[in-house]
Amino acid sequence: METKIVDPADLYRLPWTLPDNGISWLEPTARCNLNCYGCYRKNIKHSHKSMEQVKHELDVFQALRKTDCISIAGGEPLLYPHIVELVAEVKSRGLKPIINSNGIELTRELLHELKKAGVFGFTFHIDSRQGRGRGPRWEGKNELELNELRLYYAEMLAAEGGISCSFNSTVYDDTLHYVPELAAWAQRHIDIVHTMVFILFRYITPDLPYDFYTGDKKIVFDEIHYHSDKEEVTNLVAPQIVAEIRKTAPDFKPAAFLNGTHQADDFKWLLTERMGTKDKVLGYMDNKFIEMVMALYHYKNNRYLSYVSPKTLSLGRTTLFSLWAINKGIRSTLKKYLAYLIANPLRIFKRVYMQSIMIIQPVDFMPNGDQSMCDGCPDITVWTDKNGKDQLVWSCRLEEPMQYGEFLHSVPRAN
C-alpha cells in the first residue's frame, strides 16, 4: 500500500461550517497600495465603503454566521479612513478584529491607536511577487531575504505588546523550495511570530483546459481578473508543502484539516500546531488536542476558535504539565521536553511556546470542470446582489459575482 504524505484518517476535521465558523472576511475597501501578482481582488481607487455599509455587513454576519474573529481585509485595510473606528466596532460586538495588511501604512503611532481600539492581531502578507510598492530596498528580494521585513513587523507588534502576529506568503512553483526555511525562521522567532500561513498559488492561465461560462455565455479567460497570460503551475497541493518541510523537519505532523467540497481527501486548510523554544521544536499537537480545544471553546463561547492571544501561546510549559495525563500528543512532547532539560538544566529558563503553521489550498478543478472549494470556508464575505439581497460568498472569487452577477462555471475545453 502506498504511504500517504498526509492521511485524513490521522487528522481532526475542523468543525467549521457556513453558519458556524471561526473566521469571517470583511472588505471595507478594494483600494490597495500594491498590485500583487496572485491577488484575487481588483485594485479600485475610489472604493471605500461607508461605516454604515460596513456595519450592515457585520450585522449580516452576526445574523447568519457564528464567528470568532473578523478578518478586516481588502484591498489594503490600513488605507480605509475609518480603520480605527472599524476595529472598535468589531471589538464592541464581542469579536476579535484581525487586520490583513501588507503593512506599508503601519506606523507605531497607528498601531498604538489600533491597540487602544481593540485590535486582536495582524496578518501580514509578504512575498517576493508584490511588485514595486514597497520601495527599492525590497525589490528583487527572495523569500528568505524578506525575512528581515517580516521580523521588522513582528518586533513592532511585540514592542506594542499583546497583539497576535501572523504572516501569509503565496507559494509558487519556483518559491516552493523556500518553504522549509520560512517555517524554520518562524520557529526561531516562535516568541513573536504566532502563525505562518502558506497559500498555494491559483490563477486562470492559457493552458488550463477549461472554458468559463456565465449562464450559456462563454467568457474569454482574460476578462477574469485573476488570470495570467503566462503558463504557470497552478496545481500545487498541500501534501507537497508538507513533503518539502519534512526535508529539514522530518517530524513535521499536521493535526487538522478542512476538506474540499468535491473531494474528502483534499486538504484545503491544513493545520499544524507545534510546541517549542526559540532553538528547538519539542513536538506537535495531535488531532485529539485540536478536537478538545475546539469542543471546549465552543462549549464555553458558542463559537469555534480562530486566533489565540500571545499570552496563551506562551503557556507551553503549563499546557504540557496540565494536559499530559489526558492527551497522548502532549505526553509525547513532555517526554521530549524533560529529555531536553536533562541534557541542560539551565534550559528551564527558556519559555516554551505554541505556534501554528497553516497551509491553504484554494480552488481545484475537477476533471468534469467542477471547482472544488473549501468546505466550510473561513474566508466567507458578504455580497449584495442587484436585487439588494445579502449573500455569503467566497472572498477568493468575489470578482465573479461582482462582475457577472454569479459565480462562473467551468467545463472541459473541447479538443
UniProtKB/TrEMBL annotation:
InterPro entries linked: Aldolase_TIM, Radical_SAM_PqqE_MftC-like, rSAM, rSAM_sf
UniProt keyword list: Iron, Iron-sulfur, Metal-binding, S-adenosyl-L-methionine
Top-rank lineage group of the source organism: Bacteria
Segments forming domain Radical SAM core: 18-246
TM regions (residue ranges): none
Gene Ontology terms for molecular function: catalytic activity; iron-sulfur cluster binding; metal ion binding
Names of the cofactor(s): [4Fe-4S] cluster
Pfam families for the chain: Radical_SAM (PF04055)
UniProt keyword S-adenosyl-L-methionine, yes or no: yes
UniProt name for this protein: Radical SAM domain protein
